[in-house]
Amino acid sequence: MKLITRSLVTTALAGCIGMSFTIPSWSEDITLNMAVPDWPPTRIMKRLFDEKYKAPSGNNVTLEVDFIPWPDYYTRLNASLTSGEQKYNMAVSDSQWLGAFIEGGYYRKLNDLIDADPELKATLDDMHPAPLQAYATYPYKSDNIYGFPQMPDILITYARSDVLCHPDEQAGFQEKFGEKLPCTPEELDGMDWDMFEKIGQFFQRKKGDMLMGEPAEDDFYGISYQAGKGYDFSSMQINGFLWQGGGSIWDETKIPDGQAEGVVNSDASVKAFEHYLRLLKYMPPVVKTGSMDIFKTDELFREGKTALNVQWIGFAESVINPDTSKVAGDVVFAAMPGTKQADGTINRTSNIGGQPFVIMTWTEDDKIKEAVDFVKWWLSPEIQHEFAAAGGQSAIKSVYNDPKYVTYRPWNRTWAPGLEWQQDVWHVPQFFELLVQQQEQYDLAITGKQDAKTTLDAIAKFQQQLLEDADLIQ
Amino acid sequence: MFFRFNAKDQAREVDQAGWGRTIWAAIISLIYFFPVLFIVITAFKEHTDALAVPVKLFPEFMAFMVPEDLTFKPTFHNFVDVFSRSFSAGAAVQDTGFDRFFFNSVYIAGFSVLLALLIGTLAAFGFSRYPLKGNDTYLFVILTTRMLPAIVVIIPVMLMFRVTGLSGTYTGIILLYTAFNLPFTIWMMKSFFDELSPDVEDAARIDGSSERRVFFKICLPQVLAGLAATAVFGLILTWNEFLFALLLTGVETRTVPVAMSQTIGGDIGVRWGLLAAIETLFLIPVILVTFFLQNQLLRGVTFGTVKR
Amino acid sequence: MASIVGIVAVAISAFVLPVIATLWLTAAACALVAVTAVVNAWGRYTGGLLVAPAIAVLVVMNIFPLLWSLGLSFYNYRADRQTLSFVGLRNYERLITDPVVWDRLTTTALLVVLTVTVQMVVGFLLALLFSKQFPLRRYLLILVLTPMMLSYVAVGAFFRYYYDPTFGLVSQFANLFTDEPYVLISSTAGAVAAIVIADAWMWAPFVMLLVLAGLVSVPKYLYEAASVDRVPAWRRFQSITFPYVKGLLLLALLFRTIEAFKLFDVVFILTDGGQSTETIALYVYRQAIQFNKTSYSASLSYVLLFTVIVLTNLYLYLANRRAKEG
Question: What is the ipTM of this complex?
Answer without folding.
Answer: 0.88
